[in-house]
Design brief:
This protein has 316 residues and is of the alpha/beta class. It has a domain of 205 residues: ATP synthase, F1 complex, gamma subunit (Pyruvate Kinase, Chain: A, domain 1). It is 63% helix and 14% strand. Helix 3 links the parallel strand 3 and strand 4.
Length: 316
């Protein structure tokens, strides 16, 4: 009796497997993830469930970052609009005197300290690199040096232009940046670097979804002293040679502060657009993952039902 029961058990398993083969079904049926059994389907469903959880977390982060950038953009844009008339009025003094590329040209690229804002920082890095290559061919007798402002500028330029970097100024976003901070940067440049001209390269805010680049050329005090246009202005006590370095330092601080205001507004607008795009991409991924999860769960249930029905039919 015991031997017959064992024999019946072996024959039953053999008949069950053969019955599935005769009905045109594989013993491990195909699921949306490939050929696998219930345990493998369960692991795949668990993996998709984990991905859904991680994508939901990323969606929350990107949505929050978009809201923060949107709220900061308004105040940054207001500061930028207030600074524009002051910058344009002060820049008229030196705008009539073009800077000459001779001796030593100091290039100051102004970028952001943080990423996740599209290509706004890489545009400054690529533009600075292209400017260096172009001017090196056009002015072979001119020495070019870099003073990088913003952590993203040094990260991009240090790989192939490290020998030309005089010094770096970063961490500007940790505290509110004011004209006093720009004056400190200008004073440091004037004290540590000798130059014949300065080129400030930065982003320019156009709209929350658009930005461009701006180049401002500032001649050195020595170049100003040799130009007759400077005599059209009145100086206190008529001591032009003594006051020209102060004029250049003030114009340099004014340009750096203007570049920072424009760049910050452009950065926040680009970050808002980038985070909005990332949020929408996360929502699309969630939709596709939910569809795949439901299909996999339905396939697993169908497979189990087929095995139960086929097993019962084989026993009968």
């Amino acid at each position: 009796m015991l031997a017959g029961s064992r024999g019946f058990g072996i024959n039953r398993n053999f008949t069950f497997q053969n019955s599935l083969t005769q009905r045109g079904q594989a013993f491990n049926p195909l699921s949306p993830f490939g050929q696998m059994g219930g345990a493998q389907e369960g692991s795949k469903l668990k993996e998709i469930k984990g991905r859904i959880k991680s994508v939901k977390s990323i969606e929350k982060i990107t949505k929050t970052m978009k809201m923060i950038a949107s709220s900061r953009l308004k105040s940054s844009q207001t500061r930028m609009e207030k600074n524009r008339p002051f910058f344009q009025g002060a820049a008229k003094i030196l705008s009539i005197i073009p800077a000459e590329m001779s001796g030593k040209n100091l290039i100051v690229p102004v970028a952001a300290d943080r990423g996740l804002c599209g290509a706004i920082n890489s545009t400054i890095v690529k533009g600075t690199r292209a400017m260096l290559n172009k001017r090196a061919k056009e002015y072979p007798n001119t020495e070019f040096r870099l003073v990088t402002v913003g952590d993203k500028s040094i990260q991009g330029l240090a790989r192939d232009q490290a020998s030309k970097v005089a010094f770096h100024i970063g961490d500007l976003s940790k505290k509110p940046f004011t004209f006093v901070g720009a004056s400190v940067i200008a004073e440091k440049i004037m004290a540590e670097e000798t130059f014949d001209s300065v080129t400030v390269f930065s982003n320019k805010f156009i709209s929350p979804i658009a930005y461009g680049q701006e180049i401002t050329e500032i001649p050195s005090p020595a170049q100003l002293a040799n130009r007759k246009e400077i005599f059209d202005y009145e100086f206190e006590e008529d001591d032009r040679l003594f006051q020209l370095p102060d004029l250049v330092e003030f114009e340099l601080a004014n340009t750096i502060y203007h570049a920072y205001c424009e760049g910050t507004a452009a950065e926040l607008g680009a970050r808002m657009a980038a985070m909005d795009s990332a949020t929408r991409n996360a929502q699309d991924m969630l939709k596709n993952l939910n569809i795949a999860f439901n299909r996999g769960r339905q396939a697993a249930i169908t497979t189990e039902l087929n095995e139960i029905i086929s097993g019962a039919s084989a026993v009968q």
